[in-house]
Amino acid sequence: MHEYIQPLNRYYKDHHAVVVNVTGYDPVGQRVIYRRPGYEWECVAPLIVFRSRFKRIDK
Question: pTM (2 decimals)?
Answer without folding.
Answer: 0.89
